[in-house]
Amino acid sequence: MALEYFDPLLRTNDLVQELKWDRELRARFESSEKEVLDAYPLTAEERTAILDRDFRKLFELGLHPYLLSQLARLIYGTGETAGTSGAATALLRSLLGDRYDSYMAERGE
């Protein structure tokens, strides 16, 4: 049921993924959200839903539920820096082992 609306072709899915992993893009989004949205081939409905913080509409348009929650965290600042929560850190440390510190340094974290 959670994926009944999911549309992998919805460009907002790409936007949120890129916001999660691109520190510069996140900074631009925070300072000039409309300019970042202009750089993506979003539909008018997607753009309006993002600007209006209409998460239900984004879900119905096809934004993946996981990415929906990530967008809310990015917008409202409750998710820490992407990938740095306690749970994410534990997972990354486990997966990357000795490469964790260099990986985080490459990301600028």
UniProtKB/TrEMBL annotation:
Name the UniProt key words of this record, in alphabetical order: Dioxygenase, Oxidoreductase
| Entry EC no(s) | 1.13.11.8
> Which intervals of the chain form a coiled coil?
none
What sort of enzyme, by top EC class, is this? Answer: oxidoreductase
Xref: SUPFAM superfamilies:
LigA subunit of an aromatic-ring-opening dioxygenase LigAB
Question: What is an example of a GO molecular function annotated in this UniProt entry?
Answer: protocatechuate 4,5-dioxygenase activity
Taken from the record, one Pfam family name reads LigA
Instruction: Tell me the ranges covered by the Extradiol ring-cleavage dioxygenase LigAB LigA subunit domain, including all copies.
Output: 13-75
Entry-linked InterPro entries: LigA_sf, Xdiol_dOase_LigA
Gene3D superfamilies under this entry?
Dioxygenase LigAB, LigA subunit
* Residues in the signal sequence: none
Lipid biosynthesis in keyword set: no
Name of the protein: Protocatechuate 4,5-dioxygenase alpha chain
